[in-house]
Amino acid sequence: YILTMTTSILPEKYIRYEPPKQGLERKRSCTGDPKQLLHPTDSQGNLCGSGNFLDRPYSYFFDWTQCIKILNLGANILKGRPFVCPTTQVCVQQCPNITTYYKFGNYYNNRICTYDVNATDHDNQQLVETGKCASYIIASKPLFGRCVPSEIESLTNTIIQAPDANGINQTVFDSKGQPLNSTKLEQGVNYLIDLLNLKQVGAFLVEDLTIAWKYILAALAFAAIISFVWIVLMRWLAKPIVWLGILLFIFILGVLTGLAFYEFNQLRIKNDNQIYTGFKFVLDANYYRNLPITWLVIGCILAILLIISILVFLALMKRLRIALAILKEASKAVGYNIFSLFWPLIPFLLQIGIFAYWSVVAICLATAGKPIYRIAYNETIANTTNVQLGDICDPNKWNNSNTSNSACVFWEYGYDPQVDLDSILNGTGYHFKSFIIFVNQHQWIPQIFSAFMLFWLTAFVIGFSQLVLAGIYARYYWERERFGVPCSSLGASLFRALVFHLGTIAFGSLIIAIVKVIRGILEYFEEKVKDKTGNIARCLFCCCQCCLFCLEKFLKFLNRNAYIITAIYGTRFFTSARRAFHLIVSNPLRLLVIDKVCDFLIFLGKLSITAGMGILAFFFFTHRIAQAEKFVPELHYYIVPLLLIVIGTYIITTCFFSVYAMAVDTLFICAIQDIQLHDSNADHQLMMPKGLKKVFQVKDK
């Protein structure tokens, strides 16, 4: 990857400049090739179905039985490669549809050979012995660009036979002259069996989505309308709607609990009162749906959640009064600034753009490099040569006569340490050469930097959105009498954030990104050494992860309040963070408890809408709404559109209610600042609305 960028980072005196016209006309592109992830490769690293092999989209393996020997290699030799087979692989136009052997009369018309074999070469035995042609051809079908034996789903421990030119079944032999055993063939393609099953399930899922996408979009549009109406109505009916949300949440949880136990009872009766009828892991979701134990477990979990929810409401009843007052005032602020409800659409689109760009960069980094070839043994015999399994080799210089039990096969795309950097750098730049070697040998460095930028940019967009909304509601609190046109407040807040506070947002998001990267690195090391460490080390890793998780959550909470302080006073990040931290420390119970109660009530609103849409979709797709029976599509897995509707509804409600949550936090911080100014300055006039004055029990001096 770095080698392709050498001229862009060499010292200026080492760069050989080209004429400006040629430089301007030269075609520029990314170093990586995402096609490597989409197309299979042959033994020489050529991409099947791309470039010169555009008309050869499939990869054919000469002898699948040779793939058995490589499957038990250590991870240090495989170097992350999931599957490498030391047999010749070539790109073909189509997978063969018959099984034959090179001694059969019908072999010539169906043989598969390397690219340098001409149609005039009729000596099949010599071509097979020199490795130019496959000794046998197996009837195959394409799977992810690879030609896989068609009998893979019905292989038994038998010798494979095929009709010769006279139509008589004869035994087929592998490249070593041994009878081709179907069990060995199955072992050779064992790694593809799970992919084959997944492909079938994936085909069903795609088919379901092509049928149900209209219903999914209609449900999501309906969810957006409900969310918008819910927030608009809260301007006048804040308390009733909040109480409605609480009661609706408990009611829906109770309905789900009852429904789960009802399904359990019906299945139990159907299975002669047997609760447990056996269990196995399968990919068919309908299997689990028809088990009584599944609904019993779901019912018990929902019942526990229902009891916990009721107890939490009873314990927080006293705090609900303050929370409801703040929610009522926040409803007025959101209702007055109705344009702010559409603001989350812009950050959401920015997040999608950032993720899409990061995905392209990550793919280019993952596919950057040149074809790498490594040594693989064809047989499990002692190595009598001086070559090591997994060493890098050059297929053009490989001498099979010296290492008859090994082969030089394509391994991956990456960095070749055998490249002569001195010839590229013209004998200059020793330290720069060391840097190139280091980065190429540790290509995780650009990947970590890419992940860091993803974390930083996403945190930046979130912080930017929070600061803009905080500016709207801070202005509403302190300047209600001269607030002006509602839409002008959004424009003014956006202008101030863009012109004056981008540095504040960048620094706050940088801290979050650093913590996320540290967490990611720690998780990576934990995954790498989990099989080599004891309980103490695993406990330490767990404690570190927990501490970093709590630190990240606190920093996000601190940043959110710091952005609100910035929106109020226009101060820099450190000043705002210090003030926000002082607020948290001086008002821990009031800030944390009340803030979390409000967040919980907002969460109940989101959950009520999401659960309601989920229940409605469940009854619709399971043919339980008689009036809509004729509109219900026939699906393989109704759980797929159901999950998409539930997840999509929750994302939509989160976008709408995030505005509401920011209004609550901003007004709450403003109220605390107002009280502190009132206590420290007798001339300060409270800007707090009457409803909040009554709740906070403050009076004008």
From TrEMBL:
Q: Name one Pfam family in it.
A: Choline_transpo
* Positions of transmembrane segments: 212-234, 241-262, 293-317, 338-358, 448-473, 494-515, 601-623, 635-663
Q: Give the protein's function.
A: Choline transporter.
Q: Which GO terms describe its cellular component?
A: plasma membrane
The record ties this protein, via PANTHER family, to:
CHOLINE TRANSPORTER-LIKE (SLC FAMILY 44), CHOLINE TRANSPORTER-LIKE 2
Q: Which family does it belong to?
A: Belongs to the CTL (choline transporter-like) family.
In the record, what terms sit under GO molecular function? Answer: transmembrane transporter activity
Q: What is this protein called?
A: Choline transporter-like protein
Principal localisation: membrane
Compartment list? Cell membrane; Membrane
> Which branch of life, at top level?
Eukaryota
Q: How does it sit in the membrane?
A: Multi-pass membrane protein
List the InterPro entries hit by this protein, alphabetically.
Answer: Choline_transptr-like
Alphabetized UniProt keyword annotations: Glycoprotein, Membrane, Transmembrane, Transmembrane helix
